[in-house]
Design a protein that fits this description.
There is one protein chain. With 329 residues, the protein is α/β, with parallel strands linked by helices. It starts with 5 loop residues before the first strand and ends with a helix. Helix 4 links the parallel strand 3 and strand 4. It has 14 helices and eight strands.
C-alpha cells in the first residue's frame, strides 16, 4: 500500500461502479459507493439495492449509508454487511436540504446524542469495520469536531473522515484543515484520520499530508472527468514533481471508456451518456481549447455514443491543429 493513501470520496450520482473501477485503476487506495438510504434498503427498493453491487477489482471498497433512525440504521447495516464490503461508512456529513433538513447526514450535527446512538448501534450490528464521515460542525459557532471525534471513537469506529467545512458552508468557501490537524494531533485519538475538502492538485495533496499529518487524503470533485488524478498525485507524492502530462488523445480515450462503462452499467445508451455529462463539463481535458464553447454545448447535448465520440475526437483534432500553429503558447 502507498505511503500516502488517497481515497475516492463517496458522491451521489458519481461514484457508481463504472467510475470507481476507473479511479481504482489509476491509484485510488480506497473507493466508496454513493450514499445509500437506510430506509430504502429496508424497503428493498430496487434502485437502492443496486448500489450495493461491488466488484472484487475495486477492493478495498466501502459502502456508505445514511439515515436518521437508530433501529433502521442498524437494520440497514446488517443488509449492507451481506454485500461483503471491506468497510461500512456512516454519512454524518451530507449538507443538502433533502438529507440534512430531515435530520440525517449533517443534520445529526444538531443532535449529537442521536448521532452517537446511531454509531454505537451500527458498530454493534455488524462484524465488519465501521467508519464515519462528518464535518467540522453545524456552523461557525458550533465547530465541535475535536470533542466529537473522541466521542465517535469511543463508539467503536475504526476511522474518521472529516470534511473541512461546516454544514452551513455546504460546498462554498475554503475548506478549513486546521481543525482536521488538531484532531489528528490529539493524543487521545488512536484511529486513522482522513482529511477531505479542496484537494484539487498534487501539490495540495502533499501539503495536507505534510502540514496536517493525516493518515489519508480523500479526493472528491477534482476527480470529475479526471480519474487519473490519483496517478498524478501519487507520482508527485513519491517524486516531488509533476508527472509528464498525458497526451490529450489518451485522456479522451479514458473519457470514452467511462461513457462505455456507464452505458453498460445503466443498460441504456441515452441514460448512460446523460449520467456521464458532469464529467465532460468538469474535465480538465477540454479546458483552454480556443473557441471551444459551442463545441462543448454540442457535446453536452449529444445523446448518442457515436456523436459524443465524434465530438471528442474533433476536440483532439482542434487541439492538435492549435498546437501546431502555436507551438510556444
Amino acid at each position: 500500500m502507498s505511503q500516502f493513501p488517497l481515497y475516492l470520496a463517496p458522491m451521489e450520482d458519481v461514484t457508481d461502479p463504472a467510475f470507481r473501477l476507473l479511479c481504482k485503476r489509476f491509484g485510488a487506495t480506497r473507493v466508496y459507493t454513493e450514499f445509500v438510504n437506510a430506509d430504502a434498503l429496508i424497503r428493498d427498493v430496487a434502485s437502492t439495492m443496486r448500489k450495493l453491487q461491488i466488484a472484487d477489482e475495486e477492493r478495498p471498497v466501502a459502502i456508505q449509508i445514511y439515515g436518521k433512525d437508530v433501529e433502521s440504521m442498524a437494520a440497514a447495516a446488517r443488509i449492507v454487511e451481506k454485500a461483503q464490503p471491506d468497510f461500512l461508512d456512516i454519512n454524518f456529513g451530507c449538507p443538502v436540504k433533502k438529507v440534512a433538513g430531515k435530520g440525517a447526514g449533517a443534520g445529526l450535527l444538531r443532535d449529537i446524542p442521536k448521532m452517537l446512538d446511531i454509531t454505537r448501534a451500527v458498530v454493534d450490528a455488524v462484524q465488519i469495520p465501521v467508519t464515519v464521515k462528518t464535518r467540522l460542525g453545524w456552523d461557525d459557532e458550533h465547530k465541535i469536531i475535536v470533542e466529537l471525534a473522541e466521542r465517535l471513537q469511543d463508539c467503536g469506529i475504526q476511522a474518521l473522515t472529516i470534511h473541512g467545512r461546516t454544514r452551513c458552508q455546504m460546498y462554498t468557501g475554503d475548506a478549513d484543515w486546521s481543525l482536521i490537524g488538531e484532531v489528528k494531533r490529539n493524543s487521545r485519538m488512536h484511529i486513522p484520520i482522513i482529511g477531505n475538502g479542496d484537494v484539487t492538485t498534487p501539490e495540495r495533496a502533499k501539503q495536507c499530508f505534510d502540514e496536517y499529518g493525516v493518515d489519508a487524503v480523500m479526493v472528491g470533485r477534482a476527480t470529475f472527468g479526471h480519474p487519473w488524478i490519483f496517478e498524478e498525485m501519487h507520482y508527485y507524492l513519491e517524486h516531488g514533481k509533476r508527472m509528464p502530462m498525458r497526451p490529450m488523445g489518451w485522456m479522451v480515450e479514458i473519457l470514452k471508456e467511462h461513457v462505455e462503462r456507464s452505458i453498460e452499467w445503466i443498460g441504456d445508451e441515452r441514460k448512460g451518456i446523460v449520467h456521464s455529462r458532469r464529467h465532460f463539463a468538469a474535465s480538465p481535458v477540454f479546458k483552454g481549447l480556443p473557441d471551444f464553447k459551442q463545441h462543448r454545448i454540442a457535446l453536452l447535448r449529444a445523446e448518442k455514443r457515436d456523436e459524443v465520440f465524434r465530438l471528442m475526437d474533433e476536440a483532439v483534432e482542434q487541439y492538435s491543429s492549435f498546437r501546431a500553429e502555436n507551438p510556444y503558447d
